[in-house]
């Protein structure tokens, strides 16, 4: 460039406004308007990570102990080089509404020392042990069978292997009703009719029989199924049976041609069947994890009220709520382990609790708003136990159970105070868990009741 | 003359510890409310720091926080507390979703010699107020915690939350987040682990997003607030 041109440049500089050459505006904080504070960012490391192309480090721990100690010491130094240690607070339970789990039990023991003013809702005493144990030899360890039923006549009918026994709960007498000859057939489902005059027995080889218990005589043989009958339910004079042949048959037991309707909807064995208390709805649970709700007046293979597919395992446990007429509780098998509460009017799941164990039976407490669940196999908790849940909050009130192996069936006494659990350990255990029946309950202090309760679990 | 100091207030070590632990109690309540860890109905409004602050009415949570702050106060007076972290985890997967980190710098001279400092109470309250406002407005950029429902949310980036005046975001906080929270304390190594605490891992988040909030200083303890959270899938472009 020649001299004159350079001169011209310099001259033009004089006319440029001074503020363009000023230093940029200073902000109050170090950083920019995008990230107000960059002190957190390790820009060198970030750059390194972005541009580094070396393969990931293969960390095989072949370090010796001394080196590892050194590492630990250094890793517990914070950014300023100060050593520190980390503690987590385990002082008291974080919510008085949380269900009591094993982990929280330890916390609560400590909390009881601290919490002098925590609200103590008085609760009734739940028995730790069973009232009675009956020996049940040859009881079949079959999840799908429903081999117990306690009728309004106070007689418990239970199928042990190929034999069916009647146990009178008033005088404890035992009477053998029937024995299936051969060796390849046995009862798989037993249900008393509502007036407890007839006993319906479904068999492995697909036969369905009606017995009159007064005279110990077989009244009728009902045909229709081609697979074992694992579940039956009475609705007045209709007996509904569900079978491994995937069909549900409604039998009219007074008509000569008993087949009222045959429903083929399930894709696998029908393992749970329950009519609602009013008799207008039927809930059927299948081994294909589906739960169907049917309307009594319009039941056919294509006409169902709801198809509920929330469960991830067989739906065997079904129980209709005695105080809310549209509410149904269902329990899933091993891979599911959830108790789900449904509004069958809308077909919506109101609540779902994970119990992490196979659920084989559900019984509602008619005297207090609770539901009891019986459990079988489990990977984690609640194995072989009976769990009591408060309704509708579904918080766990407690658990019982001394069964040595999984519980297969649950059934409730006609007065609604006792529950029997049939276990694969060949015992029938009676639990007085639903009482007392009146409103004037024995008020035991909350913590007292639970503390004594917990020690039995920790055993 | 009134016995209260005029203009500048004297702060003792004990007073400062009380201020910081009380701050933590209110901040924890605010976080539990704003992040939906407990249902809204279980909180009640009180006036504190010149703001309507929400405190839980659940007896269990109340006693948990009060026992916690009592212990923190003790450690603060001894000058042994380095930081307090409130961790929010998913109940289902036990994965850490959020970490609210409060780092504490203690003036060693005050702990050793027992001197006191001067700072106006009002000033401290103003600083705390700013932090509380930031916690409340953090919901504008923190990812939704409710599960299994996925709620649509817009992320406003890391901008200073005080500029959030023009944004109106409604998040479905009536959906209860089924999560748990834990409180970690980082202390000096010579502190004995008390009965109600156990040694723990730091419960870190892998590749977190971090936002630094305001800090406050009592001239004896300086508290910095930082929230780090798990990267939401929505953010990854």
Quick structural summary:
The complex is a heterodimer of chains A (459) and B (237). Chain A contains 5 helices and 29 strands.
Describe, in plain words, how this protein is organized in 3D.
The complex is a heterodimer of chains A (459) and B (237). By secondary structure, chain A is mainly beta. Chain A contains 5 helices and 29 strands. Chain A has helices at 3-15, 43-51, 65-75, 102-114, 446-458, and strands spanning 85-89, 132-135, 148-150, 155-160, 163-168, 174-179, 187-192, 198-203, 208-212, 217-222, 229-235, 238-243, 247-252, 259-264, 270-275, 281-286, 291-295, 306-308, 315-320, 327-332, 338-343, 348-354, 357-365, 370-378, 386-390, 396-400, 407-412, 419-423, 427-431. In chain A, the strands form 7 sheets. A 4-stranded antiparallel β-sheet of chain A has the order 2-29-28-27, with no helix packed on it. In chain A, strands 3-4-5-6 form a 4-stranded antiparallel β-sheet, with no helix packed on it. A 4-stranded antiparallel β-sheet of chain A has the order 7-8-9-10, with no helix packed on it. The radius of gyration of chain A is 34 Å and the shape is elongated. The model of chain A is unreliable at 11-29, 96-105, 115-122 and 438-459 (pLDDT under 50). Chain B is of the alpha+beta class and 237 residues long. In chain B, the strands form 3 sheets. Chain B has a 5-stranded antiparallel β-sheet with strand order 7-4-5-10-9. Chain B is globular. At the A-B interface, strand 1 and helix 4 of A face helix 2, strand 7 and strand 8 of B. Strand 1 of chain A pairs antiparallel with strand 7 (179-187) of chain B.
């Amino acid at each position: 460039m020649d001299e004159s041109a350079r001169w011209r440049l310099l001259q033009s500089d004089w006319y440029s406004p001074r503020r363009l050459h000023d230093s940029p505006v200073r902000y109050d904080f170090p950083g920019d308007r995008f990230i107000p504070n960059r002190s957190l960012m390790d820009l060198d490391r970030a750059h390194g990570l972005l541009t580094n192309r070396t393969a990931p480090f293969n960390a095989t721990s072949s370090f010796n102990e001394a080196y590892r100690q050194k590492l630990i010491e250094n890793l517990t130094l914070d950014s300023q080089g100060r050593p520190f240690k980390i503690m987590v607070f385990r002082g008291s339970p974080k919510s008085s509404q949380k269900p009591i789990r094993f982990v929280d039990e330890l916390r609560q023991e400590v909390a009881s020392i601290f919490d002098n003013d925590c609200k103590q809702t008085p609760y009734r005493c739940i028995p730790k042990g069973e009232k009675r144990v009956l020996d049940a030899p040859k009881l079949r360890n079959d999840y799908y069978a429903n081999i117990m039923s306690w009728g309004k006549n106070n007689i418990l009918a239970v199928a042990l292997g190929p034999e069916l026994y009647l146990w009178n709960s008033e005088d404890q007498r035992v009477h053998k009703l029937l024995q299936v000859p051969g060796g390849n057939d046995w009862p798989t489902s037993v249900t008393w009719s509502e007036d407890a005059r007839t006993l319906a027995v479904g068999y492995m080889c697909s036969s369905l029989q009606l017995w009159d218990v007064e005279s110990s005589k077989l009244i009728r043989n009902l045909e229709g199924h081609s697979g074992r009958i694992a579940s039956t339910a009475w609705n007045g004079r209709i007996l509904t049976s569900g079978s491994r042949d995937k069909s549900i048959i409604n039998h009219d037991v007074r008509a000569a041609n008993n087949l009222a309707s045959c429903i083929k909807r399930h894709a696998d064995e029908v393992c749970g069947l329950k009519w609602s208390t009013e008799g207008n709805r039927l809930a059927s649970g299948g081994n294909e994890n589906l739960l169907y709700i049917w309307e009594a007046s319009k039941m056919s293979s294509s006409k169902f009220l709801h198809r509920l597919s929330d469960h991830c395992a067989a739906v065997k446990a079904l129980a209709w709520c005695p105080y809310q007429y549209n509410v149904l509780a269902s329990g899933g098998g091993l891979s599911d382990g959830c108790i789900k509460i449904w509004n069958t009017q809308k077909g919506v799941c109101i609540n779902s609790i994970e119990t992490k164990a196979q659920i084989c039976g559900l019984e509602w407490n008619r005297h207090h708003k609770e539901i009891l669940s019986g459990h079988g196999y489990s990977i984690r908790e609640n194995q072989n136990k009976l769990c009591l849940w408060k309704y509708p909050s579904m918080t766990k009130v407690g658990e019982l159970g001394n069964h040595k192996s999984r519980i297969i069936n649950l059934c409730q006494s006609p007065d609604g105070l006792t529950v029997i659990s049939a276990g694969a350990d060949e015992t029938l255990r009676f639990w007085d868990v639903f009482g007392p029946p009146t409103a004037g309950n024995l008020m035991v202090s909350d913590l007292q009741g639970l503390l004594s309760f917990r020690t039995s679990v920790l055993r | 003359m009134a016995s209260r100091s005029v203009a500048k207030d004297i702060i003792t070590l004990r007073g400062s510890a009380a201020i910081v632990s009380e701050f933590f109690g209110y901040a924890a309540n605010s976080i539990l409310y704003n992040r939906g860890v407990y249902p809204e109905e279980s909180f009640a409004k009180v006036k504190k720091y010149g703001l309507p602050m929400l405190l839980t009415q659940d007896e269990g949570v109340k006693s948990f926080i009060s026992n916690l702050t009592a212990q923190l106060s003790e450690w603060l007076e001894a000058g042994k507390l380095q930081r307090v972290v409130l961790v929010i985890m998913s109940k289902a997967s036990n994965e850490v979703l959020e970490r609210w980190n409060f780092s504490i710098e203690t003036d060693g001279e005050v702990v050793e010699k027992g001197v006191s400092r001067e700072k106006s109470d009002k000033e401290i309250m103003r600083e705390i107020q700013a932090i509380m406002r930031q916690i409340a407005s953090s919901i504008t950029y923190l990812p939704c915690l409710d599960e299994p429902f996925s709620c649509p949310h817009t992320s406003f980036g890391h901008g200073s939350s005080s500029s959030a005046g023009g944004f109106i975001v409604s998040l479905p906080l009536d959906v209860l987040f089924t999560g748990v929270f834990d409180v970690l304390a980082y202390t000096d190594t010579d502190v004995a682990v008390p009965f109600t605490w156990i040694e723990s891992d730091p419960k870190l988040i892998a590749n977190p997003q971090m936002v630094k909030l305001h800090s406050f200083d009592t001239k004896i303890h300086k508290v910095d607030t930082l929230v780090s959270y798990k990267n939401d899938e929505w953010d990854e472009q």
